[in-house]
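F.,

This is the one I mentioned.
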């Protein structure tokens, strides 16, 4: 299966669903990332410039993807914090979906406004979820949308399903018990974003947030999604 992960920022794949991505790679699926913004506002360091941050975060993203075994990463370089569902973004997303021809698209849930009672979901996370929705249907599968892409060889492609990470109403849970340590190692590659990039400590924190106690007393760790068949 081809899986295309489309997210707003470098580090979103690992934080939102790194355990599932590692599992899908281990199961033999082809996994690609499409990182839409450069994450160029993600720093409080007074000595950091946005231009340095773009390069730093790309390199961190490449290292994190390598930890999980991801096959390819494409950066679209939109501005961090300024993502809007524009015609240009639609064209870019439709082109990339037609190029990668994924069976499954993984993106972020545009309906998640808050994280429970703790904090606001970043506007770009909601914006990319909405934009991906519109790019999948009807853009990616209909030849009369973005006809200029046809001339460049990007033929219509209908993905089969969408997994929304960070879901407001989950309906699918992936068991990441075997890959949660790999997720922690991948998260820790984002040195500019993680206060204490110690993978053992990050793994402990992940275990606190992702555990489910089974009826027989066993503990498993899960990542949640809203899964929609198309
Ligand atoms: Zn993000």
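My design for it:
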């Amino acid at each position: 299966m081809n899986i295309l992960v489309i997210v707003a920022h470098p580090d979103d794949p690992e934080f939102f669903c790194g355990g599932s991505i590692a599992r899908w790679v281990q199961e033999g699926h082809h996994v690609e990332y499409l990182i839409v913004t450069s994450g160029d506002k993600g720093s409080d360091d007074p000595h950091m410039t946005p231009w340095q941050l773009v390069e730093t975060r790309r390199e961190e993203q490449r290292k994190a993807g390598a930890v999980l075994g991801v096959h390819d990463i494409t950066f679209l370089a939109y501005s961090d914090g300024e993502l809007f569902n524009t015609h240009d973004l639609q064209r870019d997303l439709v082109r990339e979906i037609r190029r990668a021809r994924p069976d499954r698209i993984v993106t972020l849930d545009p309906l998640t406004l808050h994280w429970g009672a703790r904090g606001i979901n970043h506007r770009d996370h909601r914006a990319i979820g909405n934009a991906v929705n519109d790019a999948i249907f009807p853009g990616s599968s209909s030849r009369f949308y973005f006809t200029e892409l046809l001339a460049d060889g990007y033929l219509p492609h209908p993905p089969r399903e969408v997994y929304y990470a960070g879901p407001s109403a989950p309906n699918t849970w992936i068991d990441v018990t075997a890959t949660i340590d790999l997720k922690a190692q991948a998260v820790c590659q984002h040195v500019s974003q993680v206060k204490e990039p110690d993978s053992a400590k990050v793994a402990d924190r992940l275990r606190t947030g992702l555990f489910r106690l089974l009826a027989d007393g066993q503990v498993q760790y899960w990542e949640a999604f809203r899964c929609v068949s198309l």
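Residues 39 and 80 are 5 Å apart (CA to CA).

Talk soon.
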